[in-house]
Amino acid sequence: MPLIEAHELSRVYDLDSGRVTALDRVSLAIETGDLVAVMGPSGSGKSTFMNLIGCLDRPTGGHYRLDGVAVETLSSDGLAELRNRKLGFVFQQFNLLPRVDACANVELPMVYAGIDGRTRKARALAALNRVGLADRAHHRPMQLSGGQQQRVAIARALVNQPRLLLADEPTGALDSRTALEILGLFQDLNREGVTVVIVTHDAEVARHAHRVIRFRDGHLLSDERQEAADART
Ligand code: ADP
Ligand code: ADP
Asked: Where in this chain does the record put each ABC transporter domain (predicted)?
Protein backbone atom coordinates (compact mmCIF):
# COMPACT_ATOMS: atom_id res chain seq x y z
CA MET A 1 0.00 0.00 0.00
CA PRO A 2 1.48 3.38 -0.99
CA LEU A 3 2.02 5.95 1.76
CA ILE A 4 0.40 8.62 -0.40
CA GLU A 5 -2.33 7.88 -2.91
CA ALA A 6 -3.84 10.81 -4.81
CA HIS A 7 -6.59 10.11 -7.31
CA GLU A 8 -7.73 12.94 -9.61
CA LEU A 9 -6.93 15.40 -6.85
CA SER A 10 -8.15 18.95 -7.57
CA ARG A 11 -8.23 22.25 -5.74
CA VAL A 12 -10.34 25.05 -7.18
CA TYR A 13 -10.56 28.49 -5.60
CA ASP A 14 -13.80 30.41 -6.14
CA LEU A 15 -12.88 34.07 -6.19
CA ASP A 16 -14.94 37.18 -7.02
CA SER A 17 -12.77 37.51 -10.12
CA GLY A 18 -13.54 33.93 -11.20
CA ARG A 19 -12.37 30.39 -10.59
CA VAL A 20 -8.72 29.49 -10.18
CA THR A 21 -7.81 25.84 -10.68
CA ALA A 22 -4.69 25.58 -8.53
CA LEU A 23 -4.47 21.80 -8.94
CA ASP A 24 -6.14 19.91 -11.76
CA ARG A 25 -6.91 16.18 -11.40
CA VAL A 26 -3.51 15.02 -10.22
CA SER A 27 -3.13 11.28 -9.72
CA LEU A 28 0.00 9.77 -8.22
CA ALA A 29 1.26 7.43 -5.57
CA ILE A 30 4.31 7.77 -3.34
CA GLU A 31 5.67 4.62 -1.75
CA THR A 32 7.16 4.40 1.71
CA GLY A 33 10.90 5.05 1.57
CA ASP A 34 10.93 7.32 -1.47
CA LEU A 35 12.81 10.64 -1.69
CA VAL A 36 10.88 12.92 -4.03
CA ALA A 37 11.59 16.41 -5.38
CA VAL A 38 8.60 18.53 -6.44
CA MET A 39 9.47 21.17 -9.04
CA GLY A 40 7.69 23.67 -11.27
CA PRO A 41 7.51 27.41 -11.88
CA SER A 42 5.91 29.81 -9.43
CA GLY A 43 2.12 29.41 -9.47
CA SER A 44 2.24 25.87 -10.90
CA GLY A 45 0.52 24.27 -7.90
CA LYS A 46 3.41 22.99 -5.78
CA SER A 47 2.26 24.60 -2.51
CA THR A 48 -1.32 23.61 -3.16
CA PHE A 49 -0.22 20.00 -3.67
CA MET A 50 1.93 20.05 -0.51
CA ASN A 51 -0.89 21.58 1.55
CA LEU A 52 -3.21 18.80 0.37
CA ILE A 53 -0.86 15.90 0.98
CA GLY A 54 0.14 17.54 4.29
CA CYS A 55 -3.54 17.65 5.34
CA LEU A 56 -3.41 21.43 5.81
CA ASP A 57 -6.09 21.92 3.17
CA ARG A 58 -8.88 19.84 1.67
CA PRO A 59 -9.32 19.01 -2.02
CA THR A 60 -12.38 20.27 -3.92
CA GLY A 61 -12.29 17.12 -6.04
CA GLY A 62 -10.78 13.67 -6.14
CA HIS A 63 -9.57 11.42 -3.34
CA TYR A 64 -6.56 11.26 -1.11
CA ARG A 65 -5.35 8.49 1.15
CA LEU A 66 -2.50 8.98 3.60
CA ASP A 67 -1.12 5.70 4.96
CA GLY A 68 -4.39 4.04 4.00
CA VAL A 69 -6.63 6.64 5.68
CA ALA A 70 -9.22 8.31 3.44
CA VAL A 71 -8.58 11.89 4.48
CA GLU A 72 -11.98 13.21 3.31
CA THR A 73 -13.70 11.14 6.01
CA LEU A 74 -11.90 12.97 8.84
CA SER A 75 -13.11 15.95 10.88
CA SER A 76 -10.84 18.98 11.32
CA ASP A 77 -9.69 17.56 14.66
CA GLY A 78 -9.09 14.21 13.01
CA LEU A 79 -6.99 15.89 10.32
CA ALA A 80 -4.95 17.80 12.90
CA GLU A 81 -4.36 14.59 14.83
CA LEU A 82 -3.30 12.71 11.69
CA ARG A 83 -0.97 15.58 10.78
CA ASN A 84 0.70 15.63 14.16
CA ARG A 85 1.07 11.85 14.28
CA LYS A 86 2.19 11.02 10.73
CA LEU A 87 3.77 14.15 9.27
CA GLY A 88 6.71 16.44 9.89
CA PHE A 89 7.02 19.88 8.24
CA VAL A 90 10.18 21.82 7.37
CA PHE A 91 10.06 25.35 5.92
CA GLN A 92 12.38 27.72 4.09
CA GLN A 93 12.49 30.22 6.97
CA PHE A 94 12.76 27.47 9.66
CA ASN A 95 9.69 28.85 11.54
CA LEU A 96 11.25 28.43 14.99
CA LEU A 97 9.96 30.23 18.08
CA PRO A 98 12.56 32.95 18.69
CA ARG A 99 12.12 33.32 22.46
CA VAL A 100 12.74 29.75 23.53
CA ASP A 101 15.74 27.47 23.13
CA ALA A 102 16.30 24.68 20.60
CA CYS A 103 15.12 22.01 23.04
CA ALA A 104 11.79 23.79 23.70
CA ASN A 105 11.27 24.27 19.96
CA VAL A 106 11.77 20.56 19.36
CA GLU A 107 9.41 19.69 22.22
CA LEU A 108 6.52 21.62 20.68
CA PRO A 109 4.88 18.85 18.57
CA MET A 110 4.98 16.63 21.66
CA VAL A 111 3.19 19.30 23.69
CA TYR A 112 0.36 19.08 21.12
CA ALA A 113 0.47 15.29 21.36
CA GLY A 114 0.03 15.47 25.15
CA ILE A 115 3.33 13.83 26.07
CA ASP A 116 4.64 14.47 29.60
CA GLY A 117 7.49 16.92 30.23
CA ARG A 118 10.18 14.47 31.19
CA THR A 119 9.59 12.26 28.13
CA ARG A 120 9.44 15.36 25.93
CA LYS A 121 12.79 16.59 27.11
CA ALA A 122 14.48 13.20 26.66
CA ARG A 123 13.06 12.76 23.16
CA ALA A 124 13.90 16.35 22.17
CA LEU A 125 17.51 15.89 23.25
CA ALA A 126 17.72 12.59 21.37
CA ALA A 127 16.35 14.29 18.22
CA LEU A 128 18.86 17.16 18.57
CA ASN A 129 21.60 14.59 18.99
CA ARG A 130 20.36 12.85 15.82
CA VAL A 131 20.83 16.07 13.78
CA GLY A 132 24.25 16.76 15.32
CA LEU A 133 23.20 19.55 17.69
CA ALA A 134 23.38 17.92 21.13
CA ASP A 135 25.63 20.75 22.33
CA ARG A 136 23.24 23.50 21.15
CA ALA A 137 20.10 22.38 23.02
CA HIS A 138 19.97 25.51 25.16
CA HIS A 139 20.74 28.06 22.48
CA ARG A 140 17.99 30.25 21.09
CA PRO A 141 17.49 30.39 17.31
CA MET A 142 19.26 33.78 17.08
CA GLN A 143 22.37 32.20 18.58
CA LEU A 144 22.53 29.57 15.83
CA SER A 145 23.59 29.69 12.17
CA GLY A 146 21.01 29.20 9.41
CA GLY A 147 22.08 25.60 8.88
CA GLN A 148 21.86 24.90 12.62
CA GLN A 149 18.41 26.48 12.79
CA GLN A 150 17.26 24.25 9.95
CA ARG A 151 18.65 21.24 11.85
CA VAL A 152 16.58 22.25 14.88
CA ALA A 153 13.53 22.50 12.60
CA ILE A 154 14.29 19.01 11.22
CA ALA A 155 14.64 17.64 14.76
CA ARG A 156 11.26 19.20 15.58
CA ALA A 157 9.76 17.61 12.45
CA LEU A 158 11.13 14.19 13.45
CA VAL A 159 10.26 14.10 17.09
CA ASN A 160 6.90 12.34 16.75
CA GLN A 161 8.51 9.78 14.43
CA PRO A 162 6.52 10.77 11.32
CA ARG A 163 5.99 8.50 8.33
CA LEU A 164 6.50 11.45 6.00
CA LEU A 165 8.68 14.56 6.03
CA LEU A 166 7.38 17.46 3.90
CA ALA A 167 9.91 20.20 3.18
CA ASP A 168 9.06 23.45 1.37
CA GLU A 169 12.25 24.99 -0.09
CA PRO A 170 14.26 23.76 2.93
CA THR A 171 17.57 24.98 1.51
CA GLY A 172 16.26 28.23 0.00
CA ALA A 173 17.70 30.40 2.77
CA LEU A 174 21.08 28.60 3.00
CA ASP A 175 24.40 28.90 1.20
CA SER A 176 25.24 26.03 -1.14
CA ARG A 177 27.63 24.22 1.21
CA THR A 178 25.14 24.31 4.10
CA ALA A 179 22.38 23.28 1.69
CA LEU A 180 24.38 20.16 0.83
CA GLU A 181 24.76 19.30 4.52
CA ILE A 182 21.00 19.58 4.99
CA LEU A 183 20.40 17.45 1.88
CA GLY A 184 22.84 14.90 3.32
CA LEU A 185 20.78 14.81 6.50
CA PHE A 186 17.56 14.26 4.51
CA GLN A 187 19.30 11.44 2.61
CA ASP A 188 20.44 9.81 5.88
CA LEU A 189 16.92 10.01 7.32
CA ASN A 190 15.55 8.61 4.07
CA ARG A 191 17.96 5.66 4.27
CA GLU A 192 16.64 5.04 7.77
CA GLY A 193 13.15 4.71 6.30
CA VAL A 194 11.60 8.18 6.45
CA THR A 195 9.75 9.13 3.27
CA VAL A 196 10.77 12.63 2.16
CA VAL A 197 9.10 15.09 -0.22
CA ILE A 198 10.99 18.31 -0.97
CA VAL A 199 9.63 21.28 -2.93
CA THR A 200 12.45 23.11 -4.67
CA HIS A 201 13.15 25.55 -7.48
CA ASP A 202 16.74 24.42 -7.49
CA ALA A 203 17.80 21.74 -9.99
CA GLU A 204 20.92 21.14 -7.89
CA VAL A 205 18.71 20.18 -4.92
CA ALA A 206 16.49 18.00 -7.11
CA ARG A 207 19.56 15.99 -8.27
CA HIS A 208 19.63 14.49 -4.77
CA ALA A 209 16.17 12.92 -5.05
CA HIS A 210 15.26 9.48 -6.42
CA ARG A 211 12.25 10.86 -8.20
CA VAL A 212 11.37 14.29 -9.66
CA ILE A 213 7.75 15.38 -10.11
CA ARG A 214 7.09 18.53 -12.13
CA PHE A 215 3.96 20.66 -12.11
CA ARG A 216 2.83 23.22 -14.65
CA ASP A 217 -0.43 25.19 -14.51
CA GLY A 218 -1.82 22.84 -11.87
CA HIS A 219 -1.12 19.75 -13.97
CA LEU A 220 1.34 16.97 -13.39
CA LEU A 221 3.80 17.62 -16.24
CA SER A 222 6.29 14.80 -15.63
CA ASP A 223 7.27 12.20 -13.07
CA GLU A 224 10.72 10.65 -13.48
CA ARG A 225 13.03 8.37 -11.53
CA GLN A 226 16.75 9.07 -11.49
CA GLU A 227 20.02 8.02 -9.90
CA ALA A 228 20.22 10.37 -6.90
CA ALA A 229 23.46 12.30 -6.39
CA ASP A 230 25.01 11.64 -2.98
CA ALA A 231 25.22 14.85 -0.91
CA ARG A 232 27.98 13.30 1.23
CA THR A 233 30.55 12.99 -1.57
P1 ADP B 1 3.37 27.31 -6.41
O2 ADP B 1 3.52 26.77 -5.02
O3 ADP B 1 3.84 26.36 -7.47
O4 ADP B 1 3.99 28.66 -6.56
P5 ADP B 1 0.57 27.57 -5.70
O6 ADP B 1 0.10 26.22 -5.38
O7 ADP B 1 0.88 28.51 -4.60
O8 ADP B 1 1.80 27.48 -6.71
O9 ADP B 1 -0.53 28.28 -6.62
C10 ADP B 1 -1.18 27.65 -7.73
C11 ADP B 1 -2.26 28.59 -8.24
O12 ADP B 1 -3.29 28.70 -7.29
C13 ADP B 1 -1.79 30.00 -8.52
O14 ADP B 1 -2.48 30.49 -9.65
C15 ADP B 1 -2.19 30.73 -7.27
O16 ADP B 1 -2.40 32.09 -7.55
C17 ADP B 1 -3.48 30.04 -6.91
N18 ADP B 1 -3.74 30.08 -5.45
C19 ADP B 1 -2.97 29.50 -4.49
N20 ADP B 1 -3.48 29.72 -3.27
C21 ADP B 1 -4.62 30.46 -3.46
C22 ADP B 1 -5.61 31.03 -2.59
N23 ADP B 1 -5.56 30.85 -1.26
N24 ADP B 1 -6.63 31.72 -3.15
C25 ADP B 1 -6.69 31.88 -4.48
N26 ADP B 1 -5.81 31.39 -5.35
C27 ADP B 1 -4.78 30.68 -4.87
P1 ADP C 1 5.49 30.38 2.30
O2 ADP C 1 5.81 29.27 1.31
O3 ADP C 1 4.27 31.20 1.91
O4 ADP C 1 6.66 31.24 2.70
P5 ADP C 1 5.72 28.52 4.50
O6 ADP C 1 6.79 27.84 3.69
O7 ADP C 1 6.08 29.11 5.81
O8 ADP C 1 5.00 29.67 3.64
O9 ADP C 1 4.50 27.56 4.71
C10 ADP C 1 4.01 26.73 3.67
C11 ADP C 1 2.60 26.27 4.04
O12 ADP C 1 2.59 25.58 5.30
C13 ADP C 1 1.64 27.43 4.18
O14 ADP C 1 0.49 27.14 3.43
C15 ADP C 1 1.30 27.53 5.64
O16 ADP C 1 -0.08 27.75 5.85
C17 ADP C 1 1.65 26.17 6.20
N18 ADP C 1 2.30 26.30 7.53
C19 ADP C 1 3.07 27.32 7.95
N20 ADP C 1 3.50 27.12 9.21
C21 ADP C 1 3.02 25.92 9.61
C22 ADP C 1 3.14 25.14 10.81
N23 ADP C 1 3.84 25.55 11.84
N24 ADP C 1 2.53 23.94 10.85
C25 ADP C 1 1.82 23.51 9.81
N26 ADP C 1 1.67 24.21 8.66
C27 ADP C 1 2.24 25.40 8.54
From this structure: 4-233
* Radius of gyration for the alpha carbons in the chain, expressed in angstroms and rounded: 18
Find the mean pLDDT for residues 173-179.
95
- 117-130 and 102-112 are packed helices; what angle lies between their axes, rounded to 10 degrees? 120
Phi-psi region of 169 (alpha: psi -120 to 50; beta: other; left: phi over 0): left
How far is the C-alpha of 103 from the C-alpha of 129, rounded, in Å? 11
What value of ipTM does the predicted structure carry? 0.70
Confirm or reject: Cβ of 79 under 6 Å from ligand 2: no
Element (H, E) at 189: helix 176-191
From 44, 39, 35, 48, select the one nearest 6 (Cα to Cα): 48
Residue 87 Cα, ligand 1 centroid: separation in angstroms? 22
Q: pLDDT of 86-97, one tens digit each? A: 999 999 999 999
Going by C-beta distance under 8 Å and a sequence separation of 6 or more, which residues neighbour residue 52?
6, 9, 11, 23, 58, 59, 64
End-to-end, the C-alpha distance of the chain in Å comes to 33
pLDDT digits (tens, 9 = 90+) for 110-167: 998 899 999 999 999 999 999 999 999 999 999 999 999 999 999 999 999 999 999 9
**Cβ neighbours for 161, distance < 8 A, ≥ 6 positions apart:** none
pTM for the whole structure: 0.88
- CA dist 99 and 135 (Å) reads 18
CB 80 less than 6 A from any atom of ligand 2: no
